[in-house]
Amino acid sequence: DLAHGQLVCNSNTAALLASYIVQAECGDYVEEDYPDHRYLSLYKFVPSQDDHLERKIMENHKKHVSMTPGAADLNLLETARRCDMYGIKMHVAKDHEGVSLNLAVAHMGVLVFQQFTKINTFSWAKVRKLSY
């Protein structure tokens, strides 16, 4: 989801998530093996990955010394689940006036977004009928 842009988060969170992936895949940061951020260019973490993000990932990776791959995976999931848009898949829709909206089905009900701003929530207790 992160690599395909489906997990919406800020660049700091994306860098932290990516650093856990690197820790799980590559192990501890070793300066002799990774003299600069270019070792991260082999991976595709986010659609708009650039040198600045790779430097942030490297700085986070340096902090994960002795973290096991299992612990890195767990930290990745713990961080991802705190993202506001975690587990939410947007579906394009229009309201009765033709305004473009996005709908998402979530544990709390049907969420309505304009761009990425939530404007309404219909709780499951109030949903009686859905039509396409």
From TrEMBL:
Q: Which domain of life does the UniProt lineage start with?
A: Eukaryota
How is this protein annotated for GO cellular component? cell periphery
Pfam families xrefs: FERM_C, FERM_M
Q: Which residues form the FERM domain?
A: 1-132
Molecular function (GO) terms for this protein are: guanyl-nucleotide exchange factor activity
Q: Which GO terms describe its biological process?
A: animal organ morphogenesis; system development
CDD domains, sorted: FERM_B-lobe
Q: Spell out the SUPFAM superfamilies in the cross-references.
A: PH domain-like, Second domain of FERM
Which PANTHER family does the annotation name? FERM DOMAIN CONTAINING PROTEIN (PTHR45858), MOESIN_EZRIN_RADIXIN HOMOLOG 1 (PTHR45858:SF5)
Task: Please state what the protein is called.
Answer: FERM, RhoGEF and pleckstrin domain-containing protein 1
The protein's organism comes out as Hirondellea gigas
